[in-house]
Amino acid sequence: MKIRIAYHTEYTYEQEVSFSPHLFRLFPRADYFLGVESVSFRTNAGADVQYRRDIFDNEIARCFYPGKNRVLEAALEIELDVRERNAFHFLLERHAVDFPFQYKEEEKIVLEPFLAVGGETVSLPFWTPQASPAFTVTALVELNEALFANIQYERREDGPARPPAETLALRSGACRDFAVLLAAVLRSLGIAARLASGYLCEFGESEKRAQGALHAWVEAYIPGAGWLGMDPTNGVLCNHNHITAAVGLTPGDITPVDGIYYGKTHVPSVMTAGLEMIQCDR
Asked: pTM here?
């Protein structure tokens, strides 16, 4: 399947301002199921654009802006070759078949940062794991579906992700709130989890929450399955329709656009963004 993605964002300020270096985490992470055929990225004229890989091996554009401007814009056009992927096509390692499970010592060494819970244990009032032993995949699917069924989706274009306790109190949230909550629950259960952001592309199928917008979800490390994508906003495991652009520990690690402006006082601004995804014949 060929997919063309076009993304554009623009920040317009009431007066000229200076800009910090900006990071753009918009570039799909290629793998066996995803081939990147072409990429075109542009931003303000005169900007110094440096392409790098960050600490999580995400491909990023680091942009430096000379002088002042009233507008900061960025546009990305990419063409992808996507292979169909079955989200359940894996065989768990013996030590991970039953839930709860324990990682091997060599796994813990690598996964330690993704297991940290920050001193806070998060549990859900509307879901508890089945009595041990339970099949790990069944437990994860039920957890994912419980979040989808009990948290109302709201489209919130800007603002940071809410803490898990706030999302639970409100019983509503944007996709980034769902993701932060699920990651916290997984880590509390002893499962390594990282946040992910990117694109949700589905054509000719039932409509999904956050479809047609930049999206966020979670990847849990399950021995035998690897980094297993879980989309609690839609209550599904991730397949080829989830195109990952960035992974990380915290919401700040996966923010699609990251930077600030400098001004002597607060300068009002307006942000606009557009995302178009087209399935191509060729």
From this structure: 0.94
